[in-house]
Amino acid sequence: MSFTLPDSARDWQDRIRRFVEAELIPWEVEAEMNGGEIPPDIAARHERMALDLGLSRIDAPRAHGGLALPILDQVAIAEQTGRVTNALAWCCGEAQSWMFEACSPDQIDRFILPLMRGERHFCTAVTEAGAGSDVDDIATTARRDGDHYVIDGEKWHVTSANLADTVIVQAKIQGGAADGSHALFFVGLPAAGLSTLRTPAYTHTYRHHHPILRFDGVRVPAADRIGAEGQGMGFIHAWFRRERLMIAARCCGAAERLIEAATEFAAGRAIGGEPMARFQLVQAMLADSLAELHAARLVTYEAAEAHDRGLDVKALHARCSIAKLLASEMAGRVADRAVQIFGGRGYMRENVAERFSRELRVDRIWEGTSEIQRLIIAGSLLKRGLAGTIGP
Ligand SMILES: Cc1cc2nc3c(=O)[nH]c(=O)nc-3n(C[C@H](O)[C@H](O)[C@H](O)COP(=O)(O)OP(=O)(O)OC[C@H]3O[C@@H](n4cnc5c(N)ncnc54)[C@H](O)[C@@H]3O)c2cc1C
């Protein structure tokens, strides 16, 4: 493998970097001080610009108007959006390639293409109070009733539900030949029987909330089931693989910005007449951060390249977990050191290190906690061996 990004990835990197620096980063402090909100016309402008850049289409097939970018190019994009705090880079939805395999032509027309055009906004409801790491334990049920399903259950942490018009919900089929198996459904919002139980406050300051949703006898047309009964878990795994790599990339982007900011501050702040950057204890924090970022980024690029060259899906699953584990843990350490280098300023919410020190924490939790990534990696080592997991 080569460790130089191809020209196409570099082009994307430059384009998205310009968007992020000129349009998104200038609104971070305003968002932080206003519960995550920025003026609606600015949010709308960000969405329009993101759609014009093609960000809703990067993973979609060309046959459907997508850009079908290599995963390595997508990782280069995610690294740049990862530089932004307050989720301001979540400007538009994103159609993922698995959706085109899973959805019927009618669903693609009604849900996925509007998502790509910015006319629909999705959220996803998988986790429950008693089922997060072990998704198989979900208690939400979908019972067939004529040409409908009836969905009952409670879903937690449903990110962006306050801004969405469509929820993808995972439920267990109740009754029939596929009893107990998983399936995914599109549910249009609002829906009769679907309510928000409450909207808890979280550590970060985002306009995207994570409410608890209650499904009480929500009737969903059978035509809105995604794929067949029993296929739900397979789709979720495809989703996890890509999303874990994108989280790794975003963590690398965040760490890069933090190292740049901390280095600039250390060079400019004089203590006892000397720039802080001359102090070797400060240099050690910068050096450790840079070395760890370099390693995590290479692993992330390598996993993306393995994805693009069609590595066996089971080995790939472990490689994506390795990238997420390394990059998310690395970014947490880098953010903590950056706060330390900034001193008291690093504890102020107007400071990027303060915001990232809170925001990056969730990357060790969502899309599979660090412990779950370790279990996947160890499982692959025990089944496929060392060479079968990371190559000879
Ligand atoms: C901000 C935020 C946004 C989210 N957005 C969404 C969303 O949009 N949609 C959605 O469906 N979900 C969402 N989630 C849920 C997220 O994916 C889960 O929180 C995550 O998968 C962990 O599940 P859990 O919270 O139930 O923790 P648990 O599964 O209860 O785990 C608790 C602890 O036990 C550990 N643990 C669990 N099993 C094992 C094991 N076998 N061995 C060792 N340790 C173990 C975990 O690592 C963790 O440390 C979101 C969560 C957050 C915080």
Taking the sheet with the most strands, its summary is:
8 strands, mixed
Q: Specify the overall morphology.
A: globular
Write down the overall mean pLDDT: 96
Number of domains: 3
Q: Label the CATH architecture of the largest domain.
A: Up-down Bundle
Write the H/E string, N to C: HHHHHHEEEEEEEEHEEHHHH
Compute the CA-based radius of gyration: 22 Å
From the 3D structure, determine the CATH topology of the largest domain. Answer: Butyryl-CoA Dehydrogenase, subunit A, domain 3
Question: Share of helix among residues?
Answer: 40-55%
Strand content: 5-15%
Low-pLDDT runs: none
| Count of individual beta strands | 10
Number of helices: 11
End-to-end distance? 13 Å
- The H-level CATH homologous superfamily of the largest domain, spelled out, is Butyryl-CoA Dehydrogenase, subunit A, domain 3
CATH class identity of the largest domain = Mainly Alpha
Computed structural class: alpha+beta
